[in-house]
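User: Hi! I'm working on a homework problem where we have to compare a predicted structure to a textbook description. Could you give me the structure for the chain below?
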Amino acid sequence: MGNRVHIFLWLAGILLFLFFIGYVFLYDHKEGIANSEIWDNEFRRVGINPEDMSHDDSTWYYKRLSTCVGYGGEWEQECPRHENYCSGGKTFGDAKNQVKAIVEALKNRGTHPGCPLIYVGAD
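Assistant: Happy to help. Predicted structure tokens:
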């Protein structure tokens, strides 16, 4: 009976590990900007297809790749400057400033030149 419990616990542990790996690496944690007229208009104004843009809690992504530009719907909210380029200085900045920073990132091979992080493959 004890051997069955050990096998069950071992299998349960393996399943939990697989769910964890799937959640972290396979689940898309990013949100698109569908139904957001402000963002849609700003991106279209500069020639970016809004469907190519998404974000997580603090970063903008272009075609699912990080731009290193801070995302913030609350524009006066403090931006994590150690993680992202903050278009408002210490804050996320307004929509125009965030989009302007994304344009700079796209001109710089996808990553904002003021990004505080060093990415693998960066020059």
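For your comparison, note the following. The mean pLDDT is 85. Residues 31-107 form one domain. Good luck with the assignment!
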